[in-house]
Design a protein that fits this description.
- The structure is a single chain.
- By secondary structure, the chain is of the alpha+beta class.
- The chain is built from 19 helices and 36 strands.
- The strands form eleven sheets. Strands 3-7-1-16-13-14-15 form a seven-stranded mixed sheet, with helices on both faces. The protein has a five-stranded mixed sheet with strand order 11-19-18-17-12.
- A hairpin with a 5-residue loop joins strand 34 and strand 35.
- The protein is globular and about 85 Å long.
- The chain starts with 6 loop residues before the first helix and ends in a 5-residue tail after the last helix.
- It binds cytidine-5'-diphosphate.
Length: 807
């Protein structure tokens, strides 16, 4: 029997532009013509503008704040300080990590550029000028910027508000600057593995403080209606519903009176998950003045105050046999969280999903311990294009595997392959407690090796090293390999919540009488192309062309409750909700079709965009016909209409993976590098839109390149933040960005309704260690073990100098 779809079915399927189709991004029509609607495009009648006076000190007591000169500036309407906010119980706010954070400096400042006073004025320029006129008298205090010194005896106490608290949100604290200790794995068994180990490595692998720096900074417009009591907040929020609930809880406002709207967002990358003082101050200012108030961060404020990422210092130990089998992994992480613990992780996970650190390898035992500390730096710790601390630990394990391979005298690929979790081991229970859903690492690695002709590259590298030794060239060649496993899709309610709200997601689909429809979700695209891809899922599921489905996100009044978009959770969670809602629509449609065709439901079969009678394909009703009938020819007893909603609580996370290979040439005398090739193979299960996936990989690799090769938020010993502008903070343009080669394998997730895993974060997770390994690989022959990130030209030059490679 030939059960291949008939050409007509194929043609019809193609017309739908469903899953697997490289559908062009529908949102680009407005984005490429300057017709996006961003927060700064929102201009409400009578709107005022707010700006902050910020701290010049990193740690100081505030003796006095004088706002009189600022208030005297014509056009200034109000100047708020902590004293004003105390009146409405908002001088401090809760953080997502169970800590509290000053909204405006209350008695002292804890990091440079901390918010001290909020000036509200007729326009942005007046507000900025007046903010400069706020006078603050400080009494300087000793500063802690080095996390390794934060818990020293006699270290200055930063958080005097909690100095006597023995317990934090995540258990006991053993120093006033200690936030938490979090441990996972079997310590005894792991220690025993190290006692027995034939070969061991131990390295401090630091991942520097960086910042997501979306092109559009954080901003909001808040409008309070004194008559109705409604509070409308337009903001750059990655998780609008969470913001609504947080506002309801901290401002004691009825949640139905709070309307949060995320319009178009110019990139988020984790920076727009949390709640910032700017939002609170704009809201209070609007309530006080009775008119809308806009707050827009500038670039320096964004880079130096709203959530940073990383700042993880990972002492990573691997135990192995002499023939190259890993027998244990032991890791201690010192996590620098800055002045307040405002880390944006699911509530129970103080170090995010750092326990994915066993990566793609079959470690029989492992132990991870993480200590979080306060320092005089900006708060945060967000998932910058990564799923909750995954990129940090992917860097650690992928560097550590390279270092161990070097010690064993093995090729880094061969060492990895020898220790990969095998296809038949999935679902795989890791030593640190995760159940990996599916994977086929050997196939992916082999495809990467074949595509890059890896063994030949190694031969070329060897020849180049010989030429270098003979003095015939000053260029070195590095080959970076990284094989990462991500964990995305937070998440199952059994282990993920934010402020007690389970991390499900949602979708509501309404099909109109003419067979067109609207779908709303609890997610919020910030450039990921949800309007395009979500419609593709629906098109395949219910046979309505993607072009006929309008996708709407970001309005808490209309969208079903969801936990938002970050950490590649949208496809694993909301993507599943979309398929489930569509299937509910389809189930009802089948009943209507059966009624129309006067057959039993079981006598119908689905064919792309229609139900037809089994064995009689000429007797059918298309989804469009069924939609019309849903509003006028429904079976007796059935409710009219064709719509459904699904709240999806995933049974597990999804575990995308990838094999990345980088070829880099480095000029030893200048430290300047050139990425000759960068090959990225990603497996994100079922692919909804291959073109969008490719775009996600390009973007993520570009960010990974920026991090590995230059990004860093640097502080001097006095806590002055250096490099908080694009003069100093590396943001690659098209000129610096390498060419990306993308590839894929498909290993569907067995528990996801359409088999899809997330992809947005993968390229950042995979590319950072790949670049770092390429730089390190270039210098191995000279005895180098580990060169820390970031690998800017000066530091590469310095590494060469330290290795005695300069004349
Ligand atoms: O949560 P976020 O949207 O950042 O990440 P994601 O779930 O990885 O999705 C990023 C984009 O890639 C979305 O437009 C997805 O629909 C698309 N994607 C896809 O086409 N196929 C996949 N298997 C995963 C994501």
């Amino acid at each position: 029997m030939n059960d291949a779809p008939s050409p007509t079915s194929l043609e019809r399927a193609e017309k739908l532009q469903g899953m697997g189709c490289k559908r062009k991004r529908v949102e680009d029509v407005r984005f490429t013509q300057g017709r996006g609607n961003y927060v700064d495009d929102i201009k409400l009648p009578g709107m005022l503008h707010g700006d902050f006076h910020r701290s010049s000190h990193a740690h100081a007591r505030i003796v006095k704040i004088d706002t009189s000169k600022a208030k005297a500036v014509p056009g200034v309407v109000a100047v708020l300080t902590a004293e004003d906010l105390k009146g409405v119980n908002l001088a401090w706010m809760p953080t997502l990590a169970g800590d509290v954070q000053m909204v405006l400096a209350d008695g002292k400042v804890l990091f440079q550029n901390q918010e001290i006073a909020f000036v509200v004025a007729a326009d942005r320029y007046i507000a900025a000028d007046a903010a400069d006129l706020v006078e603050v008298q400080y009494e300087a205090l000793p500063v802690v910027v080095n996390p390794f010194k934060a818990m020293d005896e006699g270290a200055p106490i930063l958080r005097e508000d909690i100095k006597d608290k023995k317990d934090g949100a995540h258990g006991p604290r053993n120093h006033p600057n200690h936030i938490f200790n979090w441990q996972v794995g079997d310590k005894e068994l792991t220690d025993a593995a190290f006692v027995k180990a034939e070969v061991k490595t131990k390295d401090l692998l630091s991942y520097q403080r960086v910042h997501p720096c979306p092109l559009e900074t954080c901003q909001c417009v808040v409008s309070f209606n004194k008559i109705t009591g409604d509070l409308t907040i337009y903001g750059t929020f990655q998780a609008p519903h969470v913001i609504r609930t947080v506002v309801a809880l901290i401002a004691s406002l009825p949640e139905q009176k709070i309307h949060v709207i995320s319009p178009d967002i110019g990139g988020g990358f984790g920076n727009k998950v949390g709640a910032y003082p700017g939002y609170i101050c704009a809201a209070v200012a609007s309530i006080v003045t009775g008119v809308p108030v806009k707050w827009v961060e500038d670039r320096i404020e964004n880079l130096s105050t709203t959530s940073f990422a990383r700042d993880y210092h990972m002492t990573t130990e691997i135990a192995a046999t002499r023939d190259g089998r890993v027998t244990g992994l032991r890791v201690h992480i010192l996590a620098d969280h800055g002045a307040f613990d405002a880390c944006a992780d699911p509530s129970k996970w103080p170090a995010g999903f750092a326990n994915i650190i066993t990566g793609s390898y079959d470690f029989p035992v492992a132990h991870l311990s993480v200590d979080g500390v306060y320092t005089n730096k900006a708060p945060g710790g967000v998932a910058y294009r990564c799923s909750f601390r995954v990129t940090e630990v992917a860097y650690a394990i992928e560097r550590a595997m390279d270092i161990m391979a070097q010690k064993l005298g093995l090729d880094p690929v061969d060492f990895r392959v020898k220790n990969f979790i095998k296809r038949e081991q999935f679902p795989y229970n890791s030593a640190l407690g995760w159940e990996y859903d599916s994977g086929d690492y050997h196939t992916a690695m082999q495809k990467a090796l074949d595509a890059t002709d890896y063994r030949k590259l190694r031969e070329e590298q060897k020849a180049k090293q010989e030429a270098f030794k003979r003095g015939e060239t000053r260029e070195l060649m590095g080959i970076g390999v990284a094989f990462f496993t991500e964990i995305v899709g937070a998440g199952p309610s059994k282990n993920c919540d934010i402020l007690g709200i389970a991390m499900f997601d949602s979708c509501e689909i309404r099909i109109h009488p003419t067979g067109k429809g609207i779908a709303r979700m609890g997610t919020k695209s910030q450039g990921q192309g949800h309007e395009t891809t979500w419609a593709q899922i629906i098109a395949t599921e219910i046979g309505i062309p993607a072009d006929d489905i309008m996708v709407e996100e970001g309005n808490t009044d209309t969208a079903p409750y969801g936990l938002g978009t970050y950490g590649s959770r949208s496809t694993p969670v909301a993507g599943a909700a979309i398929a489930m809602a569509a299937r509910k629509v389809k189930a009802k449609a089948q009943m209507i079709a059966a009624y129309m065709l006067e057959v039993h439901e079981g006598d119908l079969e689905w064919d792309v965009d229609r139900f037809s009678v089994k064995g009689n394909p000429g007797a059918f009703r298309t989804m469009s016909q069924i939609a019309w009938a849903a509003y006028n020819k429904i079976p007796p007893g059935m409710e009219p209409g064709l719509e459904a909603v699904s709240y999806y609580d995933p049974p597990n996370m999804t575990y995308p993976f990838g094999a990345y290979i980088c070829v880099m040439d480095i000029d030893v005398d200048t430290g300047v590098h050139k990425v000759r090739r960068f090959y990225a193979l990603d497996d994100c299960g079922t692919r909804i839109n291959p073109m969008i996936i490719e775009g996600q990989v390009h973007g993520g690799c570009t960010e990974g390149y920026a991090i590995a090769m230059g990004q860093e938020i640097v502080y001097d010993e006095d806590g002055n933040v250096k490099g908080a502008s694009f003069m100093d903070y590396f943001l690659p343009t098209a000129v610096e960005t390498p060419h990306w080669e993308t590839d894929y394998t498909v290993t569907p997730s067995p528990h996801h309704p359409i088999g899809a895993k997330g992809v947005g974060e993968s390229p950042n997770v995979g590319s950072v260690p790949c670049f770092a390994n390429a730089v390190n690989d270039a210098f191995k022959f000279a005895g180098s073990k580990h060169i820390p990130m970031p690998h800017d030209a000066y530091r590469i030059w310095q590494a060469a100098e330290d290795l005695g490679l300069h004349a």
